[in-house]
Amino acid sequence: MVSTQKDARTVLSDPRFSNRQELKRPQLPTARPNDASQPAAPGWFIHMDPPRHTHYRRLLQGQFTARRMRLLEPRIERIAAELIDGMITHGPPVDLVSAFALPLPSRVICELLGVPYADHAFFESNSTAMVYGSQQAVADLTGYLRDLIDGKEPGDDLISGLKAEVTVEELTNIALILLVAGHETTAAMISLGVDTLLRHPEQDRSDPVEELLRHLTIVRVGAPNRAALEEVQLDERTVAAGETVTIDLLAANHDPAVFTDPHTLRLDRPEAREHLAFGYGAHLCLGHNLARLELRIAYRALFEAFPALRHAGEPRPRAGYPIATLEELPVAW
Ligand code: HEM
Fold this sequence. Notes:
By secondary structure, the protein is mainly α. The chain has twelve helices and ten strands. Helix 9 runs parallel beside helix 12 (288-305).
């Protein structure tokens, strides 16, 4: 395990480290049961190395353009406003996870991909089960997305945009990755971020995103790991060829060599952006610009609508999950 920022950057960006699951040691502590002995299926780019990985990243980067993000911004603002209206109509207390933190990114990723939000209960519960390690959930989501892709009318969404460029199998796997990665993580950052802001009312909340990403580091231990293709000398020790290294992003984001007084939340911390909460190197989070946009809008809209937002009960963390997140966050105003 590496826990310093320097080693984390090396392991995540040095091509002598591979992200192919079949090369990793099965005993490794991991986000998912590490039973993958086969090379990644077509389109399952998260577990590929360059140049296969680069091919898919290029295709996808063409979809995650600045233009598409600009088009999405007013949509995200409208979604946030609608969810806030729903909270006002309901009246306090409200569970912020089910009323806001989960539906916001879930609706955004649906619009981006061209997946009907009407099916959200199905894909939200299966996404959670998939991150817990359920193979059944992977199969159910794959079947759902394949049917959707087969019957899809072309539109201004990502699935339509990629349809001519990849096979149905590739597109199904790409859509599955984006659907799951696109809402679980952002929902976690909204709920835990609001919980954290409520605990620090003395701090200026106008620009909290980067420090919250650093401080909370919701993707912690287990998810990012890499296999050494040859012997590599790290800062303080040597990794032998064939060994697997896991990267403790939470520790790297609390590395005192980079962050002064690292365990203290300081929303005005000038070095906050040095964090590795979105990873680093070739597999740097594909959705980081989108996630940053969603978080900026979500925190701002909530605290503008409810300047007196407060806890209305104990937040309930989700247990045994590879992503730090809340199951429930009771709030009132
Ligand atoms: C990769 C974190 C939101 C899509 C990653 C990685 C991290 C991460 C740490 C690197 C994993 C590794 O190197 O092994 C986060 C956090 C988010 C977030 C903290 C929210 C605050 C999103 C969103 C999307 C997304 C909104 C999609 C719309 C992806 C994809 C990858 C990835 C596709 C794999 C990239 C690759 O392998 O090339 N994310 N993510 N993420 N993320 Fe995110």
